[in-house]
Structures are given as C-alpha cells and as structure tokens.
What we know:
Radius of gyration: 32 Å
Helix content: 40-55%
Strand content: 25-35%
CATH superfamily of the largest domain: Periplasmic binding protein-like II
Largest sheet: 8 strands, mixed
Number of domains: 3
Distance between the termini: 57 Å
Structural class: alpha/beta
CATH topology of the largest domain: D-Maltodextrin-Binding Protein, domain 2
CATH architecture of the largest domain: 3-Layer(aba) Sandwich
CATH class of the largest domain: Alpha Beta
Oligomer: single chain
Amino acid sequence: MDIRKLKYFLAIAEEKQITKAAKLLHMEQPPLSRQLIQLEEELGAQLFERSRKQLTLTAAGELLKVRAEHLLLQLDETIKEVKDLESGVRGILSIGAAVSCVSILPKPIKQMREQYPLVTFKIAEGDHYFLGELLAKRSVELVISRLPFETHILQNKLDIFQLPSDPYVAILPCSDGSSPSSQQNSISIKHLASYPLLTLKSDKTTRMHEQVVSEFKRRGFEPTIICECSSVSIIMSLITAGIGASIFPKSVVSSFPIGTVDIREIEDADFQSDVGILWIKDQSLSKRAQHFIQCFTSDQSY
Length: 302
C-alpha cells in the first residue's frame, strides 16, 4: 500500500462516488476504480458497499478512513517538521558561553525566540578549556567567548565571527562615605590600585586576569589582589559586600541590578576585551546556528 492509494480512498469516501472523486483528483474514472480495487485486494477487505447512487463505507472502510486520515496528518506534520528543522525554524541549538560572556546572550536569544519560537536552547557555561572540550565532542555547536580562546584542543581549527570589542570598566562597592562618591563617572588606575582587587581567573583561563594586571604595571602600579575566582557572580557578590573592587568588560555587569555596585569608566586606561562566536572550522553550521549569528549582526550593542 502506498500513500497515493490512501489519498484516493479518502477522496472516494468523501465524495461517495468514483466519478466525483476522479473529478476532485483531476484524473479519469477508470484508473481510480482500478486503484480502489487494488487497495481492497491488498487489504483483503471490502471497503465500500456499492449501489447505483453512491458508495457507502463498510466497517473495514470506516476503520481505514479513521486510520488513513491520522496517518496522512502525521505525514504532513513530519514533512513540515523536517523542512522546518532544515530551515532552522525549530530544533535545539546548543551553545557554550564563557563565564564573562553570559550577559551577552539575552538580547540575541530574545530576538531568536521572537523570530523562531520553536527553536529551543541548551546553554553550557564554563572556562575556555571546558568549552573547547564541548566543541571537540560536538556537545555544543557554537561558543561565545573572550578572545583569544585559551584551549589547545582545537588550536587553529576554529572559525571566529568577531563581535564588537568590549571596554573594561571598574566595579566598586557602592559609596559608603569612605570611598569616592558614586556620582563620579570615572576613576584612575592609581586610585584603583588602593582597592583590594578581585580578578576573574580559572586554572586554565588566565587571559583577562593577566590583561588587568598588565595594565596596572604599565602605569607603574602593583595591584593588591586578594581573590582570584572563576565565577562572575561570586565576584559581584563580594564587591556588593564591600570586600573589594574588580575590573570587568562592560557587558559583564549589564545583567546585574543597577545600584548594587558602582560602575566607573577608567579614565587613564584604554584597554578592551575582544569577543567572538566560535565554531569548528569547515563544520557545516545548522540553519539554527546561522540564524543565531545573524541576531548578533542586527544589534551589535551589548
């Protein structure tokens, strides 16, 4: 039995006459009659009671009608799902994000959800080493990360879509009278050197930590680092508690409530963090991944 015969059968069941069904199907009556006879022979069952005026479904015909309608509906839905999957309008997109890049995700994900509501997400957070492993195992398709991407697993095997650079800012506890007024918009490296410093660093991802320390030393200061931590949230909690200050790319603090910390431009330093979307070179990206990257190109603000 093929799908075409089921469609012919349903047309006959609907019209209750071979002649009318043939006209509906844009075919001649004799071939349609032969198709019905072949279907009944194939099933070993009579599907219609025949009279001069019309055809009436038998019990076997009624059963086939119900099942055929269901099967054809499932087929149509399956075809649509496959086409949607290929075009990127449904399915799961697996993404990895460096701990300092999580705050970059909400805007493109929101835009993606508005355009393709049947696309869902799996998001993994970690340092460069962990994310490199996920990429190598194909557990994620894309990674959003600070650059350079510190992993030896996929060295020279990654394509990168460069995002706008992200300026560093100083993150201070809210003014308590002993610190400069939070009304100030900027702070100097010299003034920052007087604060206990908290830096973002894991065992294998050290680039941001080194970049911050180098900027202090370039200005002739030695920072007082009291904590190295791989979690943005922990560092922000420590700053909120008044324990110390930090220097982060500006996008990192965009997801934290306004007023919980004091955010300042660094007036005598001009250093930025490079950001990119990475995937395995020569790998064919899914349409979902391509659509997601396009969401970054339409709005390049963090």
